[in-house]
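During the reporting period the student researcher (J.K.) took over the structure-prediction task from the postdoctoral fellow and processed the backlog of single-chain submissions. One of the processed entries is reproduced below for the supervisory committee.
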Amino acid sequence: MTAPLVEARLLALLEEGAVVADLAAVRYVSSAGLRVLLRAAKQGVGSGRGFSICGLQSPVREVFEISGFDRIIPAYPTRAEALAA
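J.K. obtained the following structure tokens:
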């Protein structure tokens, strides 16, 4: 239910510059959530601004690995590491 709101916010932020999505508090990601993150990553690459994620918890990291998103979206253990990259 929140995917459209998150998507609109991420895409708006990407208009301003690079975005690091901190997913440390996310315990579950649905296919709708993956689609939102993929769209943000594509816009980040297409605009040259960049998009990455950080703080994946084990269940979410597993979904990213199984789906292959770990090879599409740059992921970092911490926000500090993502911002430094």
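The committee noted the following: The first strand starts at residue 19 and ends at 22.
J.K. will present the remaining backlog at the next meeting.
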